[in-house]
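=== RUN LOG ===
request id: a7f3
mode: sequence -> structure
chains: 1
length: 599
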Amino acid sequence: MLGQIGKNVNLQLLDNFKIRNKLIMIYVFCVVIPVLLSNYAMYSFIRETAIKEQRSMLENMLERLEYNFTEKINSCVSISNYLYTDRALNQFIKNTYATPIEYYHEYNKLMQDNVIRYYYTAQSVYNIEIYTDNPGMINGGNFFQVKDVVNEQWYKDFLESGKDIFVYSYYNEGKRHLSFLGPARTISIIRTLDNINKGGHKRLLKIDMDYNGFLNDVLNEKENKTIYICDDRHVLLSSEDVEAGQMDFLDKSEIALKEVTIEKQYNAISDQWTIYVTTNKSNLMNQLADKQMMWFIIVICNFILPTFIIIIINRSFSHRIDLTEEHLRKVEKGEFERINCYEGKDEIGNLIRSYNLMVVKIKELIEVVFKRNSEKQALEISKKHAELNALQSQVNPHFLFNTLESIRMRCLIKHEMETSDIIGELAMLMRRTIEWGKDFVAIDEEMRFVESYLSIQKYRFGERLAFSFYVKEECKAIRIPKFSIITFVENACIHGIERKTENGSITVVITDDEKKLLIEIMDNGSGMSGEQLEEIRKKFRNASVDMLNEAGGIGMLNAYIRLKMYYLDEVLCEIESEEGKGTYIFLEIPIRYNENLLE
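=== RESULT ===
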């Protein structure tokens, strides 16, 4: 109860505000405040989304780098495994060569099988070197004496590690100024070819991986990020070193990490690498500043446009309200004038229309009431005259029916049974045609009328005409306007079957779907051309009483307009026809209107 009282008080307070002030309140509370709150929420959401997307992008970049590195390293490891188990290569290394000529002979034989050079086609391999202490082997190609590298740092570190396979990064001073020999920065896979000396030969395999291949993977992911690949001491790869293959490795302490950094430990076989992906924090305002036009449009849509629309809406009804108020004051003085303005289709327009209608009604009551009463009396008199004329029209044909009956009896006496039956059918048709006061008949009665008509036509056409009916049992008692079906059947007979020389047929089917009565009239007559069909459809679409006056008020159009008048335009009529093949007419009539129809 208290809530209801409070509600009424609040409504009364609002009723005391002018409409303009109410619109301002609507604008502030329903436009300005929601827009500010929604824009702030949208900004916060976009900012958080941008940060998440940035981090997700960095993580995806890191995963791609890890995948590419793994592919390259695994490829080289697979090559080393194959060479480790290659019998021809191992036999070549173990053999004893008495002379250089014998060595070169066996070397050329080995190279013909592409045992080693085949692997240079792999993108991850830059160079393959095999070291051995076999004194019969000569330095050159891919084979070297191990004694020549015992003082190299990479060799010492490999021996010191005690591992069978070893990933090692080092800077080759000998290539600093000889770029045609390849990058001075070197990442190699080193492995022993025999852990135990066999035949007195110590063997070592060194595969230099393609440094530029690793660098290209890093540069391809660069965009506006910085990428570092480091071991425990040096920066092996960097996205800032575009052509750094001949420069020495940077010290790991020299890398400059930015605001957002993601790092991951990567196991390069025996070596531990760290992958850093670093960038500045996503500056949402800088990104949005690049879209000033978009923000300008948003500001217009959110503030200026609603303000302009509120002003227009206020003017649209304030003028009409003032006019209505002015005319209501005139009504208080007994002056009934219509409001002459554009009414509109909103509630105020409805109010103005209602006011104008009220003024018209009042003026009619004051100025025209007696005239309307006299017109009503004249109408009643005209109706009585029409009924008398109709009664007279029923008396006149009485002599015609007696004459037809006399002819029919004469035919019976002469045993002309067919002629007698046809005259009887004709008399029944004429009697039903002039019946007064009976606008609606049951479908069963209407179909008997149709059958009588077609029987007469069959007398005329003979074997050229056949007809059949199907009426659903539940439909026989439904009442419809008289002559609703016969008119369409007559059209089918005269305009369809008359031009056919043989095997003409007319079929009438009547069913229902609980709410609608469905009537189908079909014939296999001469049909209509497309132009004729379209002309008839156009007449049916625009059917009116005026068209009946122009056309004499006969035919299918007459029947269709009568149905529309009886059933308040809720009648559907569809016509299909093909020249030389026949015509199909479909009628759909509401059943609910028949429940209270009287004869």
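=== NOTES ===
The radius of gyration is 53 Å.
The chain is about 50% helix and 20% strand.
=== END ===
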